[in-house]
Amino acid sequence: AFDVGLQEQELTSPITVHDIDQSCFQAPPPPAASAEAIEKTVELLVRARFPLIVGGRVGYLPAATGPIRELVELLGAAYRDDRTFVCMQTIHPQNLTGSRDVLAKADVVLAIDCADVRWALGGYGKNRHAYKAKDTKRQRVIDLSQNEHASHTWNRVGGAIADTELQLLADPLTGLGQIIDGVRKRLRRDKALAGRFKRRAQAIAREKATLVKSQRRRLEARWDDNPISPGRMVAELWQAVRDKPWYLTLRNHRSWPEGAWQFDGAGQYAGHSSGGGLGHGPGASVGAAFACRDDGRFPVGIIGDGDYLMATGAVWTAVHYRVPLLMVINNNTSWYNDEEHQANIAAIRKRPPENAYIGTTTRDPDVDLAKNAESHGAVGIGPITEPGDLAPAFKRAVKVVEDGGVAVVDVRTSNL
Ligand SMILES: Cc1ncc(C[n+]2csc(CCOP(=O)(O)OP(=O)(O)O)c2C)c(N)n1
């Protein structure tokens, strides 16, 4: 009632606006880690047999790639992105994102700004209930983040407290700078280190070459699949936008084909919601597209049909405010994450897994999502059911967006 009263009260005299240049209104310098914690971190990283660096939320910032790359190269370390962010060049020879083995091999992990460190380290197994205790002697974990400030309880975003040995409670980029200085000093002191790190980097680069080949093979093996494989859809979309000043507003990380889309580093992908909440996608894509319009970038997003159906009104907002956007629906006509979960639980409880489709799929009748988008004022394209029709459909959609419009392409895909 107080708020309502306040809102309706008319102003009777001009309001005083503070001078925002006053020092008391300035942002404080970013918090740094203690010298002792940095020293321990450098020691752990330098002595590691196989150090792994995982990049998380700092992927929002284009400035993150430089220092992360520098540290990875200085140490001859392996690198991997946290699941919903991108911080490094896809083709960097030490970027092993998508490798199944890299986590298990690492004896020291530096998690940079990972919201859920346990998740970043594969600590839940395939499903969250499958909690796996970590062998903290075998794998020592350093958490560089401000996670502790983000939550005021003993708990963390997502789940259990990670088995961290060292917590650097610092602004991630500031902390990174401190670690880089420390490693550089150490390299100057101990001349033998550089050679050892270089040999390790070369071995990692060989692993990367094998990884790239296997990613390509996996993509090719399902190139002509019908229903269309999510991999082919992403690869064709990449071909359609690679020469534009693209910005990826959204992607499905569950079915993302690592290696099919070439990132130059951080600041090219908006990331996903930290809790994975459905309904995030449409609004997040349109919000990112607003920023792209002002920066002259080409916004493109890939969204699940479930996520799309949660909040289609955002498409109207984009059309209404003349915000160009290319939205591709990865439409498996299922809330598949849930369908798969129900099938798994059914198997555990000895119930018929073939019933998992009940309440999780939108078939009989299929929903015409292109028409749905058209009803919101966008150009709806699809359903695209033949893999060979993807390229012309995306070409048409790109033209719509370049002419200032909103294009929504409904692609019928397989679940995985
Ligand atoms: C608000 C909300 N409800 C339920 C969930 C649980 N959930 C996670 S993914 C998912 C299905 C997503 O479907 P879709 O976007 O079509 O992607 P798919 O898994 O089929 O690729 C569900 C129901 C959630 N994350 N958020």
What is the average of the pLDDT values? 93
Could you name the CATH homologous superfamily of the largest domain?
Answer: Thiamin diphosphate (ThDP)-binding fold, Pyr/PP domains
Q: Summarize the amount of helix as a percent range.
A: 25-40%
Spatial strand sequence of the major β-sheet: 2-1-3-4-5
Helical region count?
15
Bound molecules: thiamine diphosphate
Task: Kindly report how far apart the N and C termini lie.
Answer: 51 Å
CATH uppermost class of the largest domain:
Alpha Beta
- Gyration radius, in Å: 24 Å
Number of strands: 10
Q: Based on the structure given, which CATH architecture of the largest domain is correct?
A: 3-Layer(aba) Sandwich
Q: Low-confidence runs (pLDDT<50, min 5 residues)? A: none
Whole-number tally of structural domains: 2
Query: What is the SS-derived class?
Result: alpha/beta
Which geometry do the CA atoms define? Answer: globular
Largest sheet: 5 strands, parallel
Order of helices and strands: HHEHEHEHEHEHHHEHEHHEHHEHE
Which fold name fills CATH's third level, the topology of the largest domain? Rossmann fold
Tell me the fraction of residues in β-strands, as a range.
Answer: 5-15%
